[in-house]
Amino acid sequence: MKKRVLFLINPVSGIGRQKTIEKLIEKQIDHENLEVEIAYTKYRGHARELSAEAAGRFDIVVAVGGDGTVNEVGSALINSSTALAIVPTGSGNGLARYLEIPLKINWAVQMINMMCLKKIDTLSVNEHISLNVAGIGFDAFISHRFANKKQRGPLAYMKLISKEFANYKSSNYRIAIDGEPHDLSAFLISFANSSQWGNNIHIAPGAKIDDGLINVCVIREFPNYSAPALLISLLDQSLDQSRYDVIRKARRISIESEDELMGHADGEPIVLGTKAEIKINPLSLKVVVPPADFRRNMLLEPLKDIKDMLPPMPQFPPFPKGFLGNE
Question: What is the pLDDT of residue 84?
């Protein structure tokens, strides 16, 4: 009996590769074993609605889009028999990168044919769901600002960060980590299920997506001169080695503030009121991941690409007879 697969395509997210996805699905999918349907999302929240309707009816729902689309699809499939698959076409692709899902669309579609499933944890942030990383503070502030920008993509995101960084002020929070209270001032507080925000920027290098724990990363207020070192630590996975940041593991966190908490869930802006409760939902979502041999082939494929790009070796005429002295 064929497995049922629903592709949900966000036509406006990320960098526009969605235009070719239907042709690639037709070419790359295993039609003998998989029965495919395709739908396009029309507005924010539509992928969540369609996924909720598909839960239990389809074996797999495929999120074709960025982190926001992945969040909408995955959050509607929690504790269902339906698995989430990802064809990453966004600018960050945080969860896809962590799960080693290929960023090439044809490979990502081929991977679905193999039906390799894994259960992962998810996070609840009040009534919101995060599959990857949620947080409050500077990253949430940027998320809210970026949501209203017409220009998308990593460059636009980095330009906004550069513009707002110098003027952003840390806030005071009362935070309880597994019941242990702390009063602190923080530049940002992240709740990490996986290790990275996206684009290989790692906020919690030691995070594991199936260990039943949240990695709580607190970056305290820091002098501007230390900003380059902080950026490097996010890239080389050495965060938590500075006096300005600390990472703790927990199952439940509560945060209170005198001001309204501005938050994000997988990069999507959310409003949390003056109190937020964050908890782990262990092994609550099935996802499609690449099997080990597929990952090995992914590592070798770029070498083949480079080889194909090299010009052909020149064909020299043979040496004259007797030139080598052995004839």
Answer: 98
Dihedral (CA of 161, 166, 168, 172) sign: positive
Domain harbouring 269, CATH code: 2.60.200.40
Would you say residue 38 lies in a domain?
yes
Rounded Cα–Cα distance for residues 91 and 83 (Å): 23
Asked whether residue 82 is domain-assigned, the answer is: yes
What are the strands, taking DSSP E only, across 149-274? 171-177, 180-192, 196-198, 201-202, 214-220, 245-250, 252-256, 262-265, 268-271
Do 201 and 225 lie in a common domain?
yes
* pLDDT tens-digit readout, 247-296: 899 999 999 999 999 999 999 999 999 999 999 999 999 999 999 887 66
CATH number, residue 110: 3.40.50.10330
Q: Find where tokens 């044809």 sit.
A: 106
Q: Which residue has the tokens 């513009």?
A: 163
Pairwise CA distance, residues 26 & 30, whole Å: 9
Tokens of 96: 């896809």
Positive or negative CA dihedral for 280, 285, 286, 289? Answer: negative
Residue at 324 is within a domain = no
Question: Which of 69-97 are b and which e, b meaning 16 or more Cβ less than 10 Å from the residue's Cβ?
Answer: bbbbbbbbbbebebbbbbbbbbbbbbbbb
Count how many domains the chain has.
2
